[in-house]
Amino acid sequence: xxxxxxxxxxxxxxxxxxxxxxxxxxxxxxxxxxxxxxxxxxxxxxxxxxxxxxxxxxxxxxxxxxxxxxxxxxxxxxxxxxxxxxxxxxxxxxxxxxxxxxxxxxxxxxxxxxxxxxxxxxxxxxxxxxxxxxxxxxxxxxxxxxxxxxxxxxxxxxxxxxxxxxxxxxxxxxxxxxxxxxxxxxxxxxxxxxxxxxxxx
Length: 201
Fold this sequence. Notes:
The chain is α/β, with parallel strands linked by helices. 47% of the residues lie in helices and 15% in strands.
């Protein structure tokens, strides 16, 4: 078993001046699609701009799509989308329902992992379009000593515009790490009995 409570030490057979390495952890990084930081115009525009510029979502050539997106769609759409978000916004917490639910899922997963593995497993979440970003959470896990990361897009079925783009962003984040942890993603789980039972309940 991993022993994350062990103090930072030099690797075996490393020279004496080798930087000390923190105790090994496993990271579980949940990923959801996206949410604006607020339902006002500029946060909505930033969110929609990132989302609708993704080639996995809109696969038109950039020369054709970007002028339409920047000059027409992102001038008008933030108002209508912002109004829709405002109608369902979690005003008590100052966040979208997706953010609230994702935080709750993360907390439940963290509790379950803590019961089994203590502090050897770090559970967190990221948002593909918006905050907290995938890159910031991968960086935090590496800094915390996660030598393995399980990346979990929260979509039961695979689609390029959901799981595919989330995985793309995860791998881009790993590309920016000088030292990369071992990484895995999960397979679609729409037909898992436990998932179906949870939906039925």
